[in-house]
């Protein structure tokens, strides 16, 4: 587990801002433009949005489990057993409207933020995570939140790159 180098309040603010950052990244795009990818091997903007939201929804369970039962093991073997491209297909990322996912994303982030602020010591609570092909590792709620904040940032940058290179806009 990596040490946390940043202030928890700053990380939580970036985490809370994730839905706004994602919405700003797609602002002004026509429905058809959501189906633009960087290349034939990359996900479209629509698929990236669903991936970000579904991943966040999954990791929300880890956070809530750690807050309620730090002796539990968070196991995503069911998810990691297939490539993410197969999940994108199974969960119809290419066909679904993004509106419901954006609403879920904002609600989940508000919900988790409220929990972390209401529960004493929430940031430091831990849970064992079972990684694929690795040893189990204890991680803190703060680490998961920081990881998820960074996940959004990385994919917002992907969307911005698609907009610049394929759509000719920012």
Question: Your description of this structure?
Answer:
Helices cover 59% and strands 8% of the residues. It is built from 6 helices and 3 strands. The protein is globular, with a radius of gyration of 17 Å. It is mainly alpha-helical and 170 residues long. A hairpin with a 5-residue loop joins β2 and β3 (136-140). A 3-stranded mixed sheet has the order 1-2-3.
Radius of gyration: 17 Å
CATH topology: Four Helix Bundle (Hemerythrin (Met), subunit A)
- The assigned CATH architecture is Up-down Bundle
DSSP strand tally: 3
SSE ordering: HHEHHHEEH
Beta-strand portion reads: 5-15%
Query: Which regions contain 5 or more consecutive residues with pLDDT less than 50?
Result: none
- The CATH class assignment is Mainly Alpha
Largest sheet: 3 strands, mixed
| Large-scale geometry | globular
How many discrete structural domains?
Answer: 1
Going across the major beta sheet, what is the strand order?
1-2-3
Helix share, percent:
55-70%
């Amino acid at each position: 587990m990596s040490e946390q180098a940043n202030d928890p309040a700053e990380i939580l603010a970036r985490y809370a801002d994730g839905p706004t950052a994602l919405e700003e990244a797609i602002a002004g795009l026509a429905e058809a433009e959501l189906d633009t990818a960087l290349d034939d091997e990359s996900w479209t903007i629509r698929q990236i949005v669903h991936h970000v939201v579904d991943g966040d929804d999954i990791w929300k369970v880890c956070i809530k489990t750690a807050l309620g039962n730090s002796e539990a093991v968070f196991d995503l073997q069911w998810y990691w057993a297939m490539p993410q491209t197969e999940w994108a297909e199974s969960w119809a990322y290419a066909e679904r409207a993004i509106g419901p996912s954006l609403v879920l994303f904002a609600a989940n982030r508000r919900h988790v933020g409220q929990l972390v602020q209401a529960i004493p010591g929430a940031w430091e609570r831990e849970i064992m995570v079972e990684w694929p092909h690795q040893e189990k590792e204890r991680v803190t709620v703060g680490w998961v939140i920081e990881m998820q904040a960074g996940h959004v940032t990385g994919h917002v940058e992907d969307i911005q790159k698609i907009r610049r290179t394929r759509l000719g806009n920012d």
